[in-house]
TrEMBL record:
Molecular-function GO terms, alphabetical: peptidyl-prolyl cis-trans isomerase activity
Lineage, highest ranks first: Eukaryota, Viridiplantae, Streptophyta, Embryophyta, Tracheophyta
Domain PpiC: 7-122
Protein name: Peptidyl-prolyl cis-trans isomerase
Record's signal peptide: none
Species this protein is from: Lotus japonicus (Lotus corniculatus var. japonicus)
Annotated function: Prolyl cis/trans isomerase with specificity for phospho-Ser-Pro bonds.
Length: 122
């Protein structure tokens, strides 16, 4: 990748909650997918909404919540996905991330992986 394209990159962290409709119904904390297969999209959204409110109000820290709750393996890095450019993430995720200002946290974003909240870090 040439350095000229780096201006088109963002960096973000996220918290993912998988549910029955997720493409892969397993995660590092639920390898058999027992919880995920019994989680409706609605309950995943409700859980994530509460977490988002706690983070925005300062009751919780995004990275701490990600490391405990997120169904993505990025949890062990506090949800950090590292830098990425356009075309590397699922479209709704990419669009939400590029629309954020650095430091902002997205509304709930739906992808084939599950439901996310995204924090743009760069």
């Amino acid at each position: 990748m040439s350095s000229s394209s780096s201006s088109g990159e963002v960096r973000a962290s996220h918290i993912l909650i998988k549910h029955q409709g997720s493409r892969r119904k397993a995660s590092w904390k639920d390898p058999e997918g027992r919880v995920i297969k019994n989680t409706t999209r609605e309950s995943a959204v409700a859980q994530l909404s509460t977490l988002r409110e706690d983070i925005l109000s300062g009751k919780a820290n995004f990275e701490d919540v990600a490391s405990r709750i997120s169904d993505c393996s990025s949890a062990k890095r506090g949800g950090d996905l590292g830098p990425f450019g356009r075309g590397q993430m699922q479209k709704p995720f990419e669009e939400a991330t590029f629309a954020l200002k650095v430091g902002d946290i997205s509304e709930i974003v739906d992808t084939d992986s599950g439901v996310h909240i995204i924090k743009r870090t760069k």
